[in-house]
Each structure stands twice: as structure tokens, then as C-alpha cells.
Write a structure and sequence with these properties.
alpha/beta; 3-stranded parallel sheet; 2 helices; 3 strands; 20% helix; globular
């Protein structure tokens, strides 16, 4: 994982339990290592800025 000491953000594991805790998931990069079905299934809302969910149909997805 990358570390940016000058920022007050931290990375967390991408798990079902974590996704359920947040109001929105924002996809800002399209990498084949991410399970986008898992992200959509467990998120309340998904904002996809990279068309990473192009093969997933769900009302929770907003294409931006």
C-alpha cells in the first residue's frame, strides 16, 4: 500500500464489512484487481468515474 504521511487519510481493507459502513463508494480508477461486483453488492451507492462497472446493471450505480 502507498503511504502519504502528509495526508490525514489511511487505507482500509476492501471488505464487505467495510463497504457496508460507508454511505458511498467512489471508483476513481479501473483496475482488474478490484472485485466491482463485490463493491456494488455491498455499497449503498456507487459513483463510477471510470466506467469500471460497465458490465454491471444496478440502480445504485451513478456513472459520472
Amino acid at each position: 500500500m502507498r503511504h502519504y504521511p502528509e495526508l490525514s487519510m489511511k487505507s482500509v481493507p476492501l471488505t464487505e464489512k467495510k463497504l457496508i459502513q460507508y454511505d458511498c463508494a467512489v471508483i476513481v480508477t479501473d483496475h482488474s484487481t478490484y472485485d466491482y461486483h463485490l463493491i456494488v453488492k455491498n455499497s449503498s451507492l456507487v459513483v463510477d468515474t471510470r466506467n469500471a462497472t460497465k458490465n454491471i446493471t444496478n440502480k445504485k450505480i451513478i456513472k459520472a
